[in-house]
Write a structure and sequence with these properties.
The chain has about 80 residues and is mainly beta. It is built from 1 helix and 6 strands. It has one domain (about 10-80). Strands 1, 2, 5 and 6 form a 4-stranded antiparallel sheet that branches. A hairpin with a 5-residue loop joins strand 1 and strand 2 (about 25-35). The relative contact order is 0.30.
């Protein structure tokens, strides 16, 4: 499903990686819109994951099934203290 028209907002995503000397990664989206994605996970129904989901395919991700639409983004990677 396409995001609502004129719904784009600025958005900044931060995440950290590393245990001893953490690295910060920051992505800045000048304008991003979120819509619903159609995501399906396929696996063998005999596998542990297939046994948990009850079959070969699972697509009930609900709110986690988000699709971001953006034309430009910038990522910055730096030591956490900078």
């Amino acid at each position: 499903m396409e995001p609502a028209r004129d719904s784009a907002q600025p958005f900044v995503a931060n995440w950290w990686n590393g245990a001893g000397a953490p690295i910060r990664q920051q992505t800045t989206f000048p304008a991003i819109s979120f819509g619903v994605a159609k995501v399906t996970l396929y696996t063998s129904k005999a596998s542990p994951l297939g046994q948990l989901t009850g079959g070969n395919a699972y697509s009930s991700f609900g709110a986690l099934s988000l699709r971001g639409v953006y034309s430009l983004a910038r990522i910055v990677v730096a030591p956490s203290g900078s």
